[in-house]
Amino acid sequence: MTETPALLRMENVWKTYHSQPVLRGIDLDVAPHEVVCLIGASGSGKSTLLRCVNLLETVDDGAIYLDGAELTEVGADADRARRRIGMVFQSYNLFPHMSVLDNITLAPIRVHRTPRATAVAQAKELLERFDLADKAQEYPDRLSGGQQQRVAIVRALATRPSLMLLDEVTSALDPELVTEVLSIIRELKESGMTMVLATHEMGFARDIADTVCFLDDGVLLETGPAEQIFTEPREPRTREFLQRVLEARRI
Amino acid sequence: MTTSGAKSGANPPAWVKSARQLERERRLRRTGRRSASVATASTVLFLAVVIGVVVSSPGWPRVRETFFSAGRFSDAFPDVLRGFWLNAEIFLIAEPLILCLGLLVALARSLTGPVFFPIRALAVGYTDVFRGIPTILLVYLVGFGVPALNLRGAPSDPAVLGGAALVLSYGAYVAEVFRAGIDSVHPSQRAAARSLGLSHAQSLRFVVLPQAVRRVVPPLLNDFASLQKDTALVAVLGPLEALRQAQIHSADTFNYTPYLAAAVLFIALTVPLARFTDHLAARAERRRAPGGGT
Ligand SMILES: Nc1ncnc2c1ncn2[C@@H]1O[C@H](COP(=O)(O)OP(=O)(O)OP(=O)(O)O)[C@@H](O)[C@H]1O
Ligand SMILES: [Mg+2]
């Protein structure tokens, strides 16, 4: 991980809301093809970190690099950077006034100038893969939560990004669908996709992640291989957090 | 599974702005200054060109005499200003009435259930008819028609009658604005409210309407600005408001400068209203999108 140049690099990133710090000096390197899981309590800043990477928030300090180019540079073109990043939101954020197909083909057609026929064919193929082929003409409000979740993933994938940011993609799914989405994400990983995921599913994190990052109140407290974090965490706070999660699971 | 506040986190580092951030802020300030100077320069240039074209046109000396005569302006201004108070009064009284009427009609249209059919039909009929009639025609109809009925207790003051006509006309517009706002609130909001046990009326009152009203404030203020101008239509009934005063003055002298005086007064009222609209819109936007990048 230290040899290959990082695809995504965050250096000392700070983010405050109304003088309330939410991210406090985050340093993070993500190598190409690496899968990084962010774990941590609710409100610890996982979503905020992902939003910063996608430049939906202006950072208050520090810098973020994608492939060596600084995204946070003054006057840098945020749209150019975002074209290479796919984001799946915690609350899906599908466009309610568009059909599923239009949601998915919007960016390929309007941003990437893919011919409509190609974009539609690719979208249909993806929908097929996600078991949504019959929902192409449906509107998001008519889909179940899990279906909306999968459409959101497809929408992000449709632009063939080099980095995917996924915010709690399994939070709305039943256990069977969780395994399904998990297998989709594993498939993505095998195809070489670089991903940063925020998740509350420790089993999922352990299964999929190369590296696990424990966020505690805006501080990246511990980073390490998944096995190490889950079996022998160095920080007492990480241990405490995992303990609590484990207890909650048992109940 | 919650951390509360800032107490957690091992030895929380205090934030001291890094050299990189200070440099970034300096560059941001510089870009800001540059944009400001470009804006100023282009504005000055634009104004210079427009003024140059107007002043150098062959008819300018005559136009200046008939429309921009300083002497006539100061002669007419006190009377026009006195008339303008009547406009302001009509506006200030009509506006709350319009808001109430518009909201009531919009709510009446949103009533469901067969019992309410007559009310719904009435509301639909009202908006259809009063939005269809040109405002000036309505001012004539109410202003001359109501006194002709010889009803006991009916107002005969032309300013009141003109104001009533404006209320009827604008009430229909505002009702449609409110209805659009109510319809724009996502059905999931109503579903969430009903699921909490709130009645139809309660969900409307506490969940749907607050969101709807916030959304329609800019178009409503737009209608206010329009109403504020249309108070001049009351002039056709004869009360001494700004436009009427200007007419009287310019009829004496065949000089149109008094109209300019009236225009200046109307603008003086609309511009603050427009800036206020912008301010509200900007505030709503800030609340919705806390991030800087979108
Ligand atoms: N727009 C905002 N304005 C003010 N505070 C915010 C804003 N967005 C997030 N926060 C605060 O930032 C903190 C981190 O939020 P964030 O959404 O990143 O948490 P999270 O780790 O994703 O939590 P969860 O696991 O529940 O999704 C929270 O305390 C939240 O209240
Ligand atoms: Mg989150």
Give an overview in words.
The complex is a heterodimer of chains A (251) and B (294). With 251 residues, chain A is an alpha/beta fold. Chain A has a single domain, classed as P-loop containing nucleotide triphosphate hydrolases (Rossmann fold). Chain A has helices at 46-53, 78-82, 100-110, 116-129, 145-157, 175-190, 202-208, 226-231, 236-250; strands at residues 8-17, 20-30, 35-39, 61-66, 69-70, 85-88, 163-167, 194-198, 211-216, 219-225. In chain A, helix 3 packs across helix 4 (116-129) and helix 3 (100-110) packs parallel to helix 5. Chain A is globular. Chain B is mainly α and 294 residues long. Chain B has ten helices and no strands. Chain B has a single domain, classed as MetI-like fold (Orthogonal Bundle). Chain A binds chain B through residues 12, 14, 16-17, 20-21, 24-25, 41-44, 51, 54-58, 60-63, 72, 74-75, 78, 96, 141, 200, 216-219, 221, 235, 237, 244-245, 248, and chain B through 1-3, 6, 8-10, 12-13, 15, 17-18, 20-21, 24, 27-28, 31, 186-188, 290-294. Bound molecules: adenosine-5'-triphosphate and magnesium ion (MG). Adenosine-5'-triphosphate binds at residues 17, 22, 40, 42-48, 90, 198 of chain A. Chain A: Belongs to the ABC transporter superfamily. Chain A: It is a peripheral membrane protein. Chain A: It is found in: Cell membrane.
Q: Strands of the largest sheet of chain A, in order across it?
A: 6-7-8-3-9-10
| Second-tier CATH architecture of chain B | Orthogonal Bundle
Number of strands of chain A: 10
Order of helices and strands of chain B: HHHHHHHHHH
Average the pLDDT over all residues of chain A and give the rounded result.
Answer: 89
The overall pLDDT of chain B, averaged over residues, is 85
Please outline the major beta sheet of chain A: 6 strands, mixed
Name the overall outline of chain A: globular
The CATH architecture of chain A: 3-Layer(aba) Sandwich
Please identify the structural class of chain A as seen in this structure.
Answer: alpha/beta
Q: What is the number of domains of chain A?
A: 1
β-strand percent of chain A reads 15-25%
What top-tier CATH class of chain B fits best? Mainly Alpha
User: Under CATH, the topology of chain B is which?
Assistant: MetI-like fold
CA gyration radius of chain A, whole angstroms: 18 Å
Protein name (chain A): Arginine ABC transporter ATP-binding protein
Subcellular location (chain A): Cell membrane
Domain ABC transporter (chain A): 8-242
Main location (chain A): membrane
